[in-house]
Design goal:
Elements: H1 12-15, E1 18-20, H2 24-30, H3 40-43, H4 46-54, E2 58-60, E3 62-63, H5 73-77, H6 81-90, E4 107-108, E5 111-112, E6 118-120, E7 123-124, E8 127-128, H7 154-173, H8 184-194, H9 197-215, H10 227-248, H11 250-263, H12 288-301, H13 304-313, H14 315-324, H15 326-335
Antiparallel strand pairs: 1-2, 3-8, 4-7, 5-6
Helix pairs in contact: 10-11, 12-15, 13-14
Organism: Dendroctonus ponderosae
Protein name: SSD domain-containing protein
Pfam families: Sterol-sensing
């Protein structure tokens, strides 16, 4: 990702958030060996500490375990499992940016041995942090294109798009690769709101033509506007529009919260109650409607007497039901 370029030749180094790069040799001169565990910002005078920071070179602020090997892909490709475990447990935290350079929180599903050392992990997180250059934000071009309420510069959004394209390509080969960026929320919202505009427009045109053919008498005298129909159309249009708005905002948020509750094994009525060892019973996993259809169609309607009796009594009704539930009937026929 560090070497990824956009169409406009914008790289990560052009838009990244930069922090001072610690020179460990210089750090040893400034801090004695007995103060290794102390934060120099708390022990050094403010003016001296700030001047010390300003003289440092800068580097892109990334939060990735790959930084342990300086993103050297040749070196990373030669690593064994023992090499990785050793590096994760023995790396030196920078004394100045110790909290920023901690990698433990980037690991998920950590397994430790008796001594507390990490021996395995199920997932890793990688973060690439970008800088918002407020002086270059053009509201006519980018503004808040990220859709999160935060400002975003055009260059950063351009690089994020390249990042998403590269990640999408990698995700095709890696089934457990998940990715997102600051602009992802805005992209998804934009697609949800505008991807069906053409279908909606075609549907409206078809409805107008249909209504004209049904209620119009095609003459100059009896042509008139129906006020009640006009009011109903406006009311129905507003209802459909508000339903769409609720689906992409409030309802979606409710579904996300409910899914979060479900994954954390919380009670459906009283969410503050947790069920850490809950296992659904067999009855709750079976669909009642499927069982009813199986019994009615399998034991009554689809029998030879049932078919003859129903078709003789209600030929049109029976035919409509058979067409409506064709998929269920096919499954039951195969089952029988």
């Amino acid at each position: 990702m560090m070497g990824a370029k956009t169409i406009n030749n914008i790289t990560m180094k052009d838009v990244c958030f930069r922090i001072p790069k610690v020179n460990k040799k210089l750090l040893k001169l400034m801090i004695s060996e007995t103060e290794d565990d102390l934060d120099p910002s708390m022990t050094m005078p403010a003016a001296l500490y700030c001047s010390f920071i300003e003289t440092m070179k800068t580097e892109c602020y990334t939060k990735s375990i790959l930084e342990l090997w300086d993103f050297n892909m040749t070196q990373i490709a030669l690593l064994t499992k023992d090499d990785i475990v050793y590096s994760v447990n023995t790396y030196n935290k920078d004394l100045i940016f110790g909290k920023l350079k901690s990698y433990d929180h980037l690991l998920g599903g950590i397994v430790r041995n008796e001594t507390g050392h990490i021996i395995s992990a199920k997932a890793i997180d990688n973060y690439w942090l970008l800088l918002v250059n407020f002086s270059s934000v053009d509201m006519n071009k980018a503004g808040n294109m990220a859709g999160t309420g935060e400002w975003a510069s055009e260059e950063a959004l351009d690089w994020e798009l390249t990042f998403l394209n590269i990640s999408e390509t990698l995700a095709k080969d890696e089934k457990e690769l998940y990715y997102f960026s600051g602009r992802s929320f805005g992209d998804i919202s934009n697609n949800s709101m505008f991807q069906d505009i053409d279908k909606l427009s075609i549907g409206i045109v078809i409805m107008v033509i249909y209504v004209q053919f049904v209620i119009s008498k095609f003459n100059w005298l009896e042509a008139r506007i129906l006020p009640c129909l006009e009011s109903f159309c406006i009311y129905a249009a507003c209802g459909v529009f508000m339903t769409f708005v609720f689906v992409i905002t409030f309802f979606m948020a409710c579904f996300v919260l409910d899914q979060k509750r479900l994954e954390s094994n919380r009670n459906g009525i009283i969410p503050c109650i947790e069920h850490p060892t809950y296992k659904p019973n067999k009855c709750s996993q079976s669909r009642l409607t499927s069982r009813i259809f199986e019994y009615v169609y399998g034991n009554i309607i689809l029998t030879t007497p049932g078919k003859v009796r129903h078709f003789d009594s209600f030929p049109h009704f029976t035919l409509s039901i058979l067409m409506a539930y064709k998929s269920q009937i096919d499954e039951l026929v195969c089952f029988r």
